[in-house]
């Protein structure tokens, strides 16, 4: 898919769309759908009906259903809420283990939903096709980038680089009070010494080394998860983590990256969890409308809010769009 076909921001000013009815613990799904609905390059592409016009999957295509959802939402004045039944009714196509009526983790659902979009886009294409070619779909052109893990030998300065595709970045917030601190911690060099020494390809022996994670290729849409939930105990970090309306990623890009900017991103959606664990409590979100106004989308309720209100939220997922 040619990335140039995607719009930079919204092509026209539209009113905020409707809320989504809760069909029984579906707030995790509603909040994710709302964040994706206000992801401008995705929404603008889907409203042109290019996907449904050429889709080969038929009734089992979740992307076709989401296209219908987005088109309906952005063509309708807010007022009465709509029901996301076409997607809720086919939850099994997104994730076999998810059950209607049971609270699920919004980040996990986001990942599985985007994966189901990817499956729709690759349907009918040889599954043996090169992985790098698979990473050029609409999904990867919008949400995708590459992470680089670089290990540098302390003896000969040889760099060993490993590249992995990213669709979002999960950030540890155990000790950080801001998004900037969490990103710094994510890209902080780690020293491999003693029991963790590294086998250098050039020296052919175990050596002290430095390992650093960085972003090799920046995505058009940057999705950040603040890791609030413990994998083991299921407990939650309720700490407020400061995040900006405008974020520069320049300091987190690999030294050998081909990126030449822009490095600046603007916030357009914030997903929030209220409660004690990822599978209990309540999810809702804040989105920036095509007119540039912020709204709280809390299931069927839609209300205008200030930027200041948004920035005070205890965010779980943050969505940023790259500046043109």
How are the secondary structure elements laid out?
Layout (H helix, E strand, L loop, with lengths): L26 H11 L2 H8 L2 H5 L7 H14 L9 H4 L2 H4 L11 H17 L8 H4 L3 H6 L1 E9 L5 E8 L2 E4 L6 H8 L3 E3 L5 E2 L6 E2 L1 E9 L3 E7 L18 E3 L15 E11 L7 E7 L5 E5 L2 E4 L2 H5 L3 E8 L2
Parallel strand pairs: 3-8
Antiparallel strand pairs: 1-2, 1-7, 4-7, 5-6, 8-14, 9-10, 10-11, 10-14, 11-12, 12-13
Helix pairs in contact: 1-7
Enzyme class: hydrolase
Keywords: Hydrolase, Protease, Thiol protease, Ubl conjugation pathway
Protein name: ubiquitinyl hydrolase 1
How would you explain this protein's 3D organization?
Strands 3, 8, 9, 10, 11, 12, 13 and 14 form an eight-stranded mixed beta sheet that branches. The chain has a four-stranded antiparallel beta sheet with strand order 2-1-7-4. It is built from eleven helices and 14 strands. The mean pLDDT is 93. The two termini are 19 Å apart. Helix 1 crosses helix 7. It is 27% helix and 25% strand. It is α+β, with helices and mostly antiparallel strands. The longest helix is centred in the middle third of the chain and has 17 residues, at 106-122. It is globular, with a radius of gyration of 21 Å. It has a single domain (26-322), classed as Cathepsin B, Chain A. A hairpin with a 5-residue loop joins strand 11 and strand 12. InterPro entries: Papain-like_cys_pep_sf, Peptidase_C19, Peptidase_C19_UCH, USP, USP_CS. Keywords: Hydrolase, Protease, Thiol protease, Ubl conjugation pathway. GO terms for molecular function: cysteine-type deubiquitinase activity. It comes from Linderina pennispora. It is an enzyme of class 3 (hydrolase).
